[in-house]
Design brief:
The protein is mainly beta. The chain has helices at 2-14, 53-58, 411-452, and strands spanning 33-38, 46-50, 67-70, 75-76, 78-82, 92-94, 96-102, 106-112, 120-126, 132-141, 148-157, 165-166, 168-174, 178-185, 192-193, 199-200, 203-204, 210-211, 219-223, 234-240, 245-246, 252-269, 274-283, 292-304, 307-311, 313-328, 338-346, 348-353, 361-365, 392-396, 400-401. It contains three helices and 31 strands.
Length: 456
């Protein structure tokens, strides 16, 4: 057995598949898809490629399998930057309240920002109160004397009956330091208000009994925005005629086979009034037990004091996933008339520097084992300094299937093979040690027996 032991180990070790090294040379046949770049390229010039929806759908999350190859098979470094044109980060200021005046049906608050501040585009009222409905008139001033009306909005909370609340007042970016907020009770008969009147297909969803009362405000916050920049550019994937099923609880359930990342999901609905809680989940396999929670929010549409209020989208930043599940809580209401859904994500552009004059390049993707590349170019071309570079746009051809592509063993399969081989090696080692111990014990016993026998 000793003669067979070492050769057996050698044979088993050769069965373990080699790890895919980071420095291995890649070719088109290592990828399921490729698209050729169009144009004449000059050495050391910067170029940019819009990563289209077709590229996004066929690549892996984070574009881990995306490689830019020259005609000679050289891997060309690149960097991917989102087209969101970020300005300064959003900043929140606490306003100092300088005056307060109260009347029977209104209250006026005067407040000011810190001396050094950026323009703000919203004021948020921080309050723990529930079940209120006020008209808010916001004015701004540079000196605290001459005032200009900036916005007239409704602030409200109906959370004891429906999941609706708004304490934010939006307006165009303002450099004013002083702000005056007048809160007025919405007029109706008696001490109570019928806040919302909603009727649809014979069902009454009205919100009643919102009591008139003074609103206790803990603080006021001024918030800046990114509107000083161009804003983000989005790519989209639209789903029409989406199948909707009802689960046992009467919730509307929608399954989307998306294969794209997401920043926002928008609903196209024909219903005149609604307010529904929505849960968003994701999965890469699609089995019922594989979905994980991504976001919870509310979509609504109604008329409040003659003004239309609507939110038909959910903000939910997500990496690329194969499936998304949307669950809409209907409670006792009829299902919404869903006409379509739109997934949006910030457009991604790839930047690279040409290696040679007149070289041909291909963008290849669709490889299950490659890791996300780490190129040093990302240290020199960044979102912050991109405006100082001039990049020439490059068009791509159609994304085509490589006939010579041979799938590499997946990392999961390699791991299983390695585990199996190592298990067999351990079993052989244990058996070998057991056999050796057995021989050793027998030898010792035999020697003891030999010493105990009398000389004859």
């Amino acid at each position: 057995m000793r003669r067979l032991f070492v050769p057996a180990l050698v044979v088993l070790c050769t069965l373990i598949p080699p790890a895919s090294g980071g420095g291995a040379t890649l070719g088109r046949d290592d990828f399921q898809y490729c698209t050729d770049l169009k144009g004449a390229f000059k050495t050391n010039s910067l170029y940019t490629i819009h990563l289209s929806r077709a590229i996004v759908e066929k690549s892996r999350a984070w574009f881990a399998d995306l490689r830019l190859l020259s005609a000679g098979g050289t891997e060309v470094p690149y960097v991917i930057i989102g087209e969101d044109h970020r300005g300064e980060p959003v900043k929140t200021y606490t306003l100092a309240i300088t005056d307060y005046a109260s009347r029977q049906e209104s209250a006026t608050i005067t407040a000011k920002l810190p001396k050094d501040h950026r323009p703000i585009s919203s004021i948020v009222l921080k309050t723990d109160d529930r079940d209120f409905h006020k008209k808010a008139v916001l004015s701004g001033s540079s000196d605290g004397k001459s005032w200009r009306i900036l916005a007239e909005r409704a602030i409200y909370d109906f959370s004891s009956q429906v999941d609706l609340r708004n304490t934010k007042i939006l307006f165009k970016p303002s450099r004013y330091r002083y702000y005056r907020l007048k809160l007025v009770d919405v007029r109706s008969g008696g001490d109570h208000q019928q806040a919302i009147k909603l009727k649809y297909e014979g069902l009454d969803f009205s919100v009643n009994e919102v009591r008139k009362k003074a609103l206790r405000i803990q603080r006021m916050e001024g918030v800046t925005s990114r509107s000083e920049t161009k804003g983000a550019v989005y790519d989209r994937k639209v789903f029409l005629d989406v199948p909707v099923e009802l689960d046992k609880a009467g919730n509307s359930v929608i399954i989307l086979k998306a294969d794209v990342p997401m920043e926002r999901i928008s609903f196209t609905l024909s219903n005149p009034y609604y307010s529904r809680a929505v849960r968003l989940l994701y999965s890469d396999r699609g089995e019922d037990d594989s979905y994980r929670s991504l976001s919870r929010s509310t979509i609504y549409r109604f008329t409040l004091a003659g003004r239309k209020e609507a939110k038909d989208y959910i903000e939910a930043r997500s990496l690329k996933h194969r499936y998304y599940k949307i669950v809409i809580a209907n409670k006792n209401n009829p299902p919404l008339d869903l006409q379509g859904l739109t997934l949006s994500w910030v457009r991604k552009n790839l930047y690279f520097i040409a290696l040679n004059d007149g070289a041909a390049y291909s963008l290849c993707l669709g490889n299950t084992v490659l890791s996300r590349p780490d190129y040093e170019l990302k240290r020199f071309i960044t979102r912050d300094n991109l405006s100082r570079h001039t990049a020439q746009p490059v068009q791509t051809g159609p994304v085509t299937v490589n006939a010579g592509y041979v799938p590499a063993p997946s990392e999961g399969r390699n791991a299983k093979i390695e585990k199996l081989v190592l298990t067999v090696i351990i079993i052989i080692l244990v058996l070998g040690m057991g056999f050796w111990l057995y021989r050793l014990v027998r030898k010792i016993a035999h020697e003891n027996d030999s010493r105990g026998k009398p000389d004859g």
